Amino acid sequence: MTDVDLATAQENMVEQQLRTWDVLNERVLEVMQKLPRHAFVPTAFANLAYADMQIPLGNDQVMLEPKVEARLLQALDPQPNERVLEIGTGSGYLTACLSEMAEDVTSIDLYVGFTELASKNLKQQGAENIRLETADAASGWDDGQLYDVIAVTGSLPELHQGFHRSLTEGGRLFLILGQLPIMEAVLITRVSDDQWACESLFDTSAPALVGAPVTRSFAV
Questions:
Q1: 3-state secondary structure of 72
Q2: Closest Cα to residue 166, out of 199, 201, 196?
Q3: What structural domains and CATH numbers belong to the chain?
Q4: pLDDT of 136-162, one tens digit each?
Q5: Cα distance between residue 24 and residue 47, in whole Å
Q6: Which of 20, 56, 83, 173 has the most CB atoms within 10 Å of its CB?
Q7: At residue 67, does pLDDT exceed 60?
Q8: CDD domains per the record (predicted)?
């Protein structure tokens, strides 16, 4: 695609995918209009960077559909003074979006190849308020810090509370729960020291977070 074609595809993504899927937060729309998603997409899929589809990244992982990323950002609504934790860095696109909206972002990925790829992509975009780590965070993440926003980009077959206590009071956690064919995106808010509220957002599907705990058997 030419630069003109990419610009048109990006505009169409915002107007035809995001707005029509109830993404109305202007900060989210501005960030996704500004950042070049094609710079984070594997070369083989560059022409599909703004399509309404998941894009394979390798290791059975994907970039989520743009509209799902947008709804995630809208639900979490990171503020300029807030700290973000992301589980599942991938190519770094959503990391970049979060960094544009928040004070700083810590992003964790299981695969060193993704961490290295994201680091390269983010540096090319001039992002500086991001810390990347390679680690297994499927069961939760406790680095002694509290976060205002936590985005888990792989699905969890079962809800667990490994991330709940890493939230500040008033902090928001985005999860995709369940198994194929239909999963549920939810927003969990910490309302007090020992209380959390859960809001159902929309149905979707995403590859499971590698190593996510499962305590019961599922029928095939």
A1: helix
A2: 196
A3: 54-204 (3.40.50.150)
A4: 999 999 999 999 999 999 999 999 999
A5: 26
A6: 173
A7: yes
A8: AdoMet_MTases
**Spatial CA neighbour of 175 closest among 165, 163, 166:** 163
Q: Which two tokens stand for residue 94?
A: 């959503």
* Tokens 């937060």 -> residue: 25
> Are 135 and 207 in contact, with CB atoms under 8 Å apart?
no
Cβ contacts of 4 within 8 Å, gap of 6 or more:
none
Beta strands in the chain (DSSP E): 55-58, 61-63, 83-87, 104-109, 130-134, 147-152, 167-179, 182-192, 195-204
d(CA 73, CA 174): 9
For 83, phi and psi rounded to 5 degrees? -105, 140
Distant-in-sequence, close-in-space partners of 206: CB < 8 Å, separation ≥ 6:
54, 62, 64, 68, 153, 154, 155, 176, 183
DSSP β-ladder status, 147-152 and 83-87: parallel
**Helix, strand, coil content of the chain in percent (nearest 5):** 35, 30, 35
Cα distance between residue 10 and residue 220, in whole Å: 39
Q: In what order do the strands lie in the sheet with 83-87?
A: 130-134, 104-109, 83-87, 147-152, 167-179, 182-192, 195-204
User: How does strand 104-109 pair with strand 130-134?
Assistant: parallel
